[in-house]
Amino acid sequence: MQYFWRVAENTLYVVVRDVCHAICGEYVDEVMTAPSTPEQWRQLANVFLKN
Q1: For the segment 1-51, what is each residue's pLDDT rounded down to a tens digit?
Q2: Distance CA 10, CA 32 (A)
Q3: Where are the domains of the chain?
Q4: Which top-level group of life is the source organism from (predicted)?
Q5: Is the dihedral of CA 14, 20, 22, 25 positive or negative?
Q6: CB 28: neighbour CB atoms within 10 A?
Q7: For residues 23 and 37, what is the distance between their CA atoms, to the nearest angstrom?
Q8: Cβ 8 vs Cβ 2: under 8 Å
């Protein structure tokens, strides 16, 4: 990307890092919620065991 956009590698690193942090900050509650009951933990464990 640095050659395509003609930006320095360190600038590109900062931009990509900041964008990733912004995406994670926005969607963490929707996508990564921890189970709160023993039954929810069992259901999650069963999903991992099946895959």
Answers
A1: 767 778 888 888 999 999 999 999 999 888 888 899 999 999 999 999 997
A2: 30
A3: 2-50
A4: Eukaryota
A5: negative
A6: 10
A7: 28
A8: yes
Looking at residue 11, its amino acid is T
Token couple for 33: 């919620």
Which residues does 12 contact at the CB level (< 8 Å), separation at least 6? 1, 2, 5
CA distance 33 to 29: 6
**34: amino acid identity, one letter:** A
pTM over 0.70: no
What's the confidence (pLDDT) of residue 25? 93
